[in-house]
Amino acid sequence: MKGKILILEDDIVLAEQIAKVMKRYEYQVLLTVNSDQFFDELRMFQPDVILLDVFLIGSRLNGIQVLKHLKDNMDLNYKVIVISGEVTSTQISEIRALGAYHFIEKGSAFSTNQLLLHIENAITLKHQEEEHIGLQIEY
To answer: Which residues contact 9 (CB under 8 A, 6 or more apart)?
Structure first.
């Protein structure tokens, strides 16, 4: 297994397509469709990367609110890749300010190869940061 990916996406078809590709590349994947289910699964699953949609129909929190909660209240080193089709430049600035690792736009320019590359890079960075913290504690 290369890493663990938790997907929060209200478009079930898209989420299942992404999950299928990620599993083919030996990632462990868990799908969630709303913020409540996401937070229920988060601590137990302990993902390396979170794929997060911004607009979550039928969810108590939208993706930006989830990202803010992760930044303000969670103590683990999650790498968040935001995937959305309709965001404003203000929302993209807010997503970056909240510490998202990367933003990918849905639509015709969406590439699973690009997504895979960003996931691999995010996991590598996460492991390097954890190793660095471990070395600091050691010394």
So the answer is: 15, 18, 31, 32, 33, 51, 52, 53, 56, 83
